[in-house]
């Protein structure tokens, strides 16, 4: 049971760390657009770029 | 032409069957545009080859965009998207306005330059789903000189960084245009930064409260399940202290807006929703701290954190609704005039970018147009509508030399101004004022709910104090938790939170569909209206008449007559005036210049050309009594050739003697019969008033089945008609367009101005429809009815909930944590119900594509 004297303060510290991490992520604007980044990574175009030249002609 | 058309029509049917069998189309009966999903009316006319297959599109605009997409190898877009694209009305015109944005003076307003690279944030129109943002990013990223390009779907903005040596901004805007997206600069402003800052702060508070709640629950859990004395006091105390440390930031940081709100309410001596909540949180927290320090008594840390978290969650929902409303306002403000007609001595006026106008330079503003910058009236006095700026709804008179604020609308004759400030100083103030006016507008419904909420709160505080006193006599230990439960369980949220949220959500939805409520009570009034009064021109008809005939009555020939008429109408925003100017331009005549122009609303326009007085307008206005009698005898009515055409005519006269009768045709909107039928089916009385001739009006009214029709009505007559209806206790909804209708729109209980409305009508109406669709009127009405229904549901729920919950709490049947849960659940229920009004654009797109 004495372990609680260590574990409970530790849990408070972990929560503090998680909160700090979240606040940093929020400051970087990571939560502002939750939809388009998902599309970006799936629809990334890794074929040879033939398109733009066609467009130029 | 016909054989290939036939061949592809056959191929089309095969494709259609294939698509239908694959379940790709909602309605297999009609063929949907491959690009935007609207029905294809002319199969085979606009086809495009996508991945080797011929696809149908509905118009040249969609065809051009689809071709641009496939030519660039971006056809993956069609596979990835989950919604059809925005419809294109016409192919992108790359020669157009975007070159304006290359002007360094214009660009200075919204482009930042850093280390040789330019950066800007632009509003994007046409984003529908994630695939659209991908498409736009890809399209722009392929342009040379682009360093960085990101598209934010949620805020409908794009951030661009480019090398000005390699590419111009206009080229980027045109590239986006070819792919069907409109990019619009807006003043990258503090407002945006503030909004983003506010969004972040809210998210942080919510997170801190959420994580605090979860962990405090864990510490509280043993105490709930353990029997008395099972936990050694030292461990119980440890848990309490840990809970205390986690609750502290929740109360001090996350709940700070609640305490600030309560403090403001106290200073205003008008207790609202925050007061009981703040007292409840404060009392529960203080009592818990006391118990923790003294190691004696009960703690409610879990209740406090849960309450704060759920309450912030409910308010976050409400805030989202407001955010969408203000975002739409930004887009609207971006459409303020960008060019002015600059006066140059000894040369014709020249159109230049408004941002290039220097203080001290002179420019012209026509009737019904907005003054682009803060300016002084050069010569004559004038009347202005400054409602956009000050909320003053009556026209304001200014003398020559007075300072006119940018954004004021010229109600009088075209006038000359001397600019006093650069445009950058005027536009931003318009944006912020418009936004704050919309936000600050207090509809009667809100005033009512606030009064009720205030009484409710005061009663509640008194009740809580009484309950504490009584329980103190019965059982001192139970007095605190019961009083806290009473404070916490009560929910004025349907009044203080859900009603504003419902109204904001409804106006955001309206804005998303191009319907702008300029007054807070507009939706309420629309829901209550019993009569609808329509104007004809531009409302039931397309409002884009063309000149179909010029009957010569005097010495001048056709071209000269049109030239004179065009000179008189040069600065007109009335559709008939524009049609005459367009016809004169088509005749290729050089412009005569008219001086001392004055407009008589509903009658016509007069002015001096080469020293002689000319009039253009209604017969009774243009011609003297005698000339009119003479004409009446000889004049033959215009033959009704085309069934679909509706004729108007205006007379041109010189010194009271007729020169010509100009005939203009206007066509009925396709959706008009449906809208009228729907309104009548809903039990509304429909009226038609028009300044036009009886024959035209009767023909139109017969076709639409409107019995109550009032032709040849002057603006004053229209107003009298509306007032007569109101005197019978009817509530009148007026639908109109243009300067002629301003008194009608202002006099009705609630008014709707149609798209292509001049700027004047846009601000004098309760609701302005930017889209040029008459069926928006019925859409708006059903939105108004839905808003009313949801508001009453919320109020009904709040009444039932409070009647049950408050007495239960007062009798001590509800523990504080149950009270907190019940109150929060009720808040989220009503806020969520209100948010049902927030129709996301994707849904309205689907609806309109299905309906169309």
Describe the structure.
The complex is a heterodimer of chains A (57) and B (852). Chain A is mostly helical. Chain A has three helices and no strands. The longest helix of chain A has 25 residues, at 3-27. Chain B has 852 residues and is of the alpha+beta class. In chain B, the strands form six sheets. Chain B has a seven-stranded mixed sheet with strand order 17-29-28-27-18-25-26, sandwiched between helices. In chain B, strands 9-8-10-16-11-14 form a six-stranded antiparallel sheet, with no helix packed on it. In chain B, α10 (274-294) packs antiparallel against α11 (301-333), α15 (476-489) packs parallel to α29 and α16 packs parallel to α29 (816-835). The longest helix of chain B has 36 residues, at 190-225. The A-B interface holds A 1, 4-5, 8-9, 11-12, 15, 18-19, 22-23, 26-27, 29, 31-36, 38-40, 42-43, 45, 47, 49-52, 54-55 and B 68, 71-74, 76, 80, 130-131, 133-134, 137-138, 142, 151-155, 196, 199-200, 203-204, 207-208, 211-212, 215, 218-219, 232, 235, 238-239, 242, 245-246, 249.
| CA-based shape of chain A | elongated
Order of helices and strands of chain A: HHH
Please state the average pLDDT score of chain A: 74
Cα separation of the termini of chain B: 28 Å
Q: Mean of the pLDDT scores of chain B? A: 76
Radius of gyration of chain B: 32 Å
* Spans where pLDDT lies below 50 across 5 or more residues of chain B: 1-29, 427-436, 637-645, 756-762, 841-852
The number of helical runs of chain A is 3
Overall spatial form of chain B: elongated
Helical proportion of chain B, percent range: 40-55%
State the secondary-structure class of chain B: alpha+beta
């Amino acid at each position: 049971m004495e372990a609680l004297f260590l574990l409970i303060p530790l849990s408070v510290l972990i929560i503090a760390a998680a909160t700090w991490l979240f606040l940093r992520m929020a400051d970087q604007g990571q939560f502002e657009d939750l939809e388009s980044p998902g599309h970006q990574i799936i629809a990334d175009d890794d074929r040879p770029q033939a398109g733009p030249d066609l467009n130029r002609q | 032409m016909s054989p290939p058309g036939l061949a592809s029509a056959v191929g089309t049917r095969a494709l259609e069957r294939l698509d239908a069998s694959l379940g790709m189309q909602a309605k297999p009966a009609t063929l949907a545009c491959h690009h935007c999903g609207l029905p294809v009316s002319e199969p085979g006319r606009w086809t495009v080859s996508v991945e080797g297959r011929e696809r149908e599109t509905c118009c040249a605009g969609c065809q051009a965009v689809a071709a641009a997409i496939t030519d660039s190898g971006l056809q993956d877009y069609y596979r990835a998207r989950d919604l059809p694209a925005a419809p294109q009305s016409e192919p992108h015109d790359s020669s157009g306005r975007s070159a304006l944005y290359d002007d360094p003076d214009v660009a200075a307003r919204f482009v930042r330059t850093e280390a040789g690279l330019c950066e800007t944030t632009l509003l994007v129109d046409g984003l529908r789903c994630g695939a659209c943002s991908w498409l736009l990013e890809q399209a722009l990223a392929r342009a040379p000189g682009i360093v960085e390009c990101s598209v934010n779907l949620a805020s409908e903005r794009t951030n661009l960084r480019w090398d000005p040596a390699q590419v111009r901004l206009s080229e980027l805007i045109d590239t986006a245009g070819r792919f069907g997206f409109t990019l619009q600069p807006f003043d990258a402003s503090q407002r945006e930064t503030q909004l983003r800052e506010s969004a972040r702060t809210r998210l942080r508070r919510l997170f801190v409260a959420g994580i605090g709640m979860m962990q405090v629950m864990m510490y509280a859990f043993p105490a709930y399940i353990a029997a008395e004395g099972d936990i050694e006091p030292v461990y119980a105390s440890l848990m309490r202290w840990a809970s205390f440390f986690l609750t502290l930031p929740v109360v001090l940081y996350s709940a700070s807006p609640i305490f600030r709100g309560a403090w403001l309410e106290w200073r205003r001596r008008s207790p609202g929703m925050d007061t009981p909540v703040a007292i409840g949180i404060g009392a529960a927290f203080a009592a818990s701290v006391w118990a923790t320090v003294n190691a004696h008594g009960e703690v409610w840390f879990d209740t406090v954190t849960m309450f704060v978290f759920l309450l912030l969650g409910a308010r976050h929902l409400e805030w989202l609704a407001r955010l969408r409303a203000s975002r739409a306002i930004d887009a609207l403000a971006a459409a303020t005039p960008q060019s002015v007609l600059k006066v140059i001595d000894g040369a014709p006026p020249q159109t230049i970018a408004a941002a290039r106008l220097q203080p001290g330079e002179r420019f012209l503003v026509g009737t019904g147009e907005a003054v682009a910058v803060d300016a002084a009236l050069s010569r004559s006095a004038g009347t202005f509508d400054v409602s956009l700026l000050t909320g003053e709804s009556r026209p304001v008179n200014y003398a020559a030399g007075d300072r006119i604020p940018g954004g004021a609308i010229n109600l009088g004759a075209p006038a000359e101004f001397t600019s006093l400030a650069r445009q950058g100083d005027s536009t931003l103030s318009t944006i912020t004022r418009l936004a704050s006016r919309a936000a600050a507008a207090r509809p009667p419904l809100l005033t009512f709910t606030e009064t009720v909420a205030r009484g409710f709160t005061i009663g509640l505080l008194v009740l809580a104090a009484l309950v504490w006193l009584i329980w103190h006599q019965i059982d001192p230990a139970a007095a605190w938790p019961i009083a806290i439960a009473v404070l916490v369980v009560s929910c004025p949220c349907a009044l203080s939170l859900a009603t504003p949220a419902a109204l904001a959500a409804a106006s955001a939805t309206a804005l998303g569909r191009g319907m702008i409520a300029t007054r807070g009570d507009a939706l309420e009034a629309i829901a209550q209206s019993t009569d609808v009064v329509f104007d004809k021109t531009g409302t039931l008809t397309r409002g884009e008449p063309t000149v179909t005939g010029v009957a010569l009555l005097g010495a001048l020939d056709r071209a000269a007559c049109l030239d004179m008429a065009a000179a008189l109408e040069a600065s007109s925003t009335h559709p008939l005036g524009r049609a005459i100017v367009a016809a004169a331009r088509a005749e290729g005549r050089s412009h005569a210049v008219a001086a001392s122009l004055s407009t008589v609303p509903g009658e016509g326009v007069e002015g001096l050309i080469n020293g002689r007085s000319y009039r253009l307008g209604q017969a009774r206005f243009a011609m003297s009594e005698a000339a009119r009698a003479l004409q009446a005898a000889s004049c033959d009515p215009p033959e009704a050739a085309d069934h679909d055409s509706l004729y108007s005519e205006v007379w041109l006269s010189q010194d009271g003697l007729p020169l010509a009768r100009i005939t203009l045709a206007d066509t009925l909107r396709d959706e008009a019969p449906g809208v009228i039928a729907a309104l009548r089916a809903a039990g509304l009385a429909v009226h038609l008033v028009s300044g036009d001739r009886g024959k035209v009006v009767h023909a139109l009214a017969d076709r639409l089945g409107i019995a109550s029709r009032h032709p040849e009505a002057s603006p004053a007559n229209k107003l009298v008609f509306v007032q007569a209806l109101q005197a019978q206790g009817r509530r009148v909804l007026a639908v109109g367009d243009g300067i002629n209708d301003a008194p009608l729109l202002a006099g009705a209980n609630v008014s709707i101005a149609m798209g292509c409305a001049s700027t004047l009508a846009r601000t004098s109406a309760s609701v302005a429809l930017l889209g040029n669709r008459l069926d928006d009127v019925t859409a708006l009405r059903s939105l108004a009815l839905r808003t009313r229904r949801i508001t009453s549901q919320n109020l009904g729920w709040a009444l039932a909930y409070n009647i049950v919950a408050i007495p239960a709490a007062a009798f001590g049947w509800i523990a504080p944590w149950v009270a907190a849960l019940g109150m929060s659940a009720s808040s989220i229920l009503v806020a969520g119900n209100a948010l049902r009004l927030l129709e996301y654009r994707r849904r309205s797109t689907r609806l309109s594509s299905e309906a169309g």
